[in-house]
Amino acid sequence: MSKTKSKVPLKTKLISILLPMGIGLGLSLYVKYKVLLPVSITNVYMEPTLKQGDTKYFSKWFRKDNLGIGDVVICHSPSDPNSYFIARIIGKPGDSISIQKRFVFRNGTILDPTLFPEPATQNIPLIPQGKTEHDDMNPITVPEKTFFLLADNREMGVDSRILGPIQESQIFAVLW
After folding, report:
1. Closest CA to 106 of 117, 120, 116
2. Using CA atoms, how far apart are residues 73 and 121, in angstroms rounded to an integer?
3. CA 91, CA 100: separation in Å to the nearest integer?
4. Deepest in the core among 10, 18, 63, 157, taking most CB within 10 A?
């Protein structure tokens, strides 16, 4: 007696192969476009943390009340809603922020200087207009529903020193 093989219909074979592939493709596209945001770094504002030309991934899924000091975020620019910038959170609502001789003070206490990685070379071609060699800033209090952001490369970066405190609604992603 010979064993007979049961024939599996083509429709069942296709479903068993294409259904998992379709689910996997759908999930990967959802994560790529709704959860993670790939960003190509186009300037030196966050060097040495984020180097020009690198691609970093930012998460769009975050809770604004869970943002902490030191988190790197992407924000819409208050001066141009079509542009964005990347900076580090230094102050939360109610905090008093000041900068004296390049040291950042939050509520009267100096922030850990290792929070701002120093570039490998200190060859700054020219200090931009309007900024001092010591990078001083008088104390300001961060208003409710805003954050104070500071670029790692303070000589070249655009941040809350120029734009003022950033509304929490303008933050749309956090470094993953």
Report:
1. 116
2. 25
3. 15
4. 157
